[in-house]
Amino acid sequence: KMSLREAITPMTKEVLNGVEEACKILMQRIIEKSSEGDAVMVIGVGNTIGIAQ
Predict the structure, then answer these.
(1) d(C-alpha 38, C-alpha 34), whole Å
(2) Within 1-53, where are the H helices?
(3) Residue pLDDT, tens place only, 18-39
(4) Is the dihedral of CA 7, 12, 18, 20 positive or negative?
(5) Vertex 42, ends 21 and 3: CA angle to 5°?
């Protein structure tokens, strides 16, 4: 959850770095857990489920 101000301001460097790291980890897992020719679905559901405030 974020404030309106956070929602309309540019992404911080820390968040950008986190996104890049998350993508790297996701790609590693896909490569480890799938075989060539497999269909892989990446589904993002919500963004704060289970995160306490």
Answers:
(1) 6
(2) 4-8, 13-33
(3) 888 999 999 999 999 999 999 9
(4) positive
(5) 60
Domain count, the chain: 1
**What is the extent of the structural domain holding 48?**
1-53
Q: Is 43 helix (H, G, I), strand (E, B) or coil?
A: coil
pTM of the prediction?
Answer: 0.60
The sign one gets for the Cα dihedral 52, 49, 10, 15 is positive
Q: What are the CA-CA distances from residue 29 to residues 16, 24, 40, 42, 44 (Å)?
A: 20, 9, 11, 11, 15
Give the integer Cα–Cα distance in Å for 18 and 47: 14
**Long-range Cβ pairs for the range 30-35 (8 Å, 24+):** none
What pLDDT score does 34 carry? 97
